[in-house]
Amino acid sequence: MNLLEIQHRMLEAVMQPLTNDEQMQPRTPDGKSMHDVAAEFIKPNDRLSSFERLEIYNRQYWFRVLASLDEDFRGLRAIIGPRRFEALSKAYLIECPSESFTLRNLGSRLEWWLRSHPEHLQPRAGLALDMVRLEWAEIEAFDGAAEPVLVPGDVLASDPDPRFRLQPYVQLLSVHYAVDDLLVALRKDDSDSEMASNAVSERGKRTHLRKVARQKPQAIFLVVHRVDDSIYFKRIEPEAFKFLKALREGKSLSAAVMQAFEGRDIQENKLLTTVQGWFENWSSLGWFCAPNSTDQGLISASGRQS
Amino acid sequence: MPANPFNGFTDFGVGIGLRVPHYRHILAEKPVVSWFEIISENYMIDGGRPLHVLDQILDRYRVVQHGVSMYFGSPEPPNREHLKKLKTLVKRTQTPWLTDHLCWGSVDGTYSHDLLPMPYTFEAARHTAQKIREVRDFLEIPIAVENVSSYAEFHVSEMTEWQFLTEVVELADCGILLDVNNIYVSSRNHNFNPHDYVNAIPANRVAQIHIAGHSKFEKYILDTHDHPVIDPVWNLYARAIERTGRTATLLEWDDKIPSFEEVHNEALKANQFVADMAVTS
Fold first, then answer.
1. pLDDT for the residue A129
2. What is the fold of B5-280?
3. CB of B259 within 8 Å of any CB in chain A?
4. In chain A, positions 246-305, which contact chain B (CB-CB < 8 Å)?
């Protein structure tokens, strides 16, 4: 058996789901005895059979990847419950094993996968899916790139219709449930549980969950961003969301304004005041990137013509 | 041989792993630490808090990068995107040398996120050494490979683990990150004398040494990095530095992490062995 054959066999065995009592499966998916399969390439010793030695790796694999998803999607786990979350995680990882060198990306396909497996989320599928999207957006916002920030000295150049770039870490999310409030409340319950009993914490979680789940679905527009390396959720108006989406798509200022207020009858001075207000607020949060050499019509504070 | 080509001719002392629970203490108290080892993958990102903390650490301390996902023994060629991210980080940290494990962990782009053991064959040694050379050529810094703890052995193995390690590093002309805790763990799991291992490796290639704690189970020992270093491992450490000379040494503590002082004090015990060696030599 050469190196590649051993690696194929071992990885297949290591990634096979454990039994309900967290042991290695006695049979492979195609019905072979796992004892026989293990014995073909792994030596036994005086204490452990080939099967038992392979099982150590099998268990380590599943404990590691399940713990990673559990850490990244605490909100989802709270919504569907720990048992169903574990079942969902196993099913997801069987179909979507890691394709990245880092566990950070383990949940990158979870939303996509859940859209074709909504049975894991019933009866709160909408709420649960919104939570998955929020939790993934948080991961992206946490370690996304930050470019130098647009400062007041970065003035508009001759182009009257410049394009503004959003910071890469800024995540735009439209949801139907108040998952932002829910996630904050769940974390507070977890934090409080360090001082109170787990029972009190779990009761608090259930109360928050019921409250949000009972709410009628409505369009909520969120920006997941960071300030001083901490993540924040900011709700914005629908027009503001459309405006930011347009900027993210690379549209010019005028095109973004058009897209934001399409179908709205609004006076020009009111529109101007609104957009100015957005810029003041969002600039203070550092959401816009300073001009770079690819920007059209902007001059940086250092005077560099872009 | 404290300074050699495999650790960039540096002379680092005893360091500890940079871990999140200690960030606040290190940044606020600025303790005297010879150097920190970082897990490369934790900082192969585009922005955010981890990189900001790292930059503050780099302002004050020496940092060496240690990876957990290069998988030199995996069948696929090195992933270019992975290498580019790693090189960006290498430029940021100015790490004098870079370490990762002598293991495999992925096949056809599917990752186990584990350090899986190699079959000790000449075929595997040639394949692994070739990959180490490719990675070193791309990163343009010295590389040292770490022996892993293992729980399984393969029928096809043609040599001992220490012979395999030697074969790989000679073929790749690279350094060794000698983990004496891993040697101890594997020796118990596979019934060999750990001193035979330490006595056999090419001492002139040891760039760095790892020490750590582990967990004992009824039928095997697991490399958990969640306990202090036990005496038999310190004894192996003493023998290792007897052969290599004073060498950059790092304590790993990755789970149930105690206070910074506790971890640092545990690491600094290594200095006593260096002092003892100086007295007896």
1. 97
2. TIM Barrel (3.20.20)
3. no
4. none
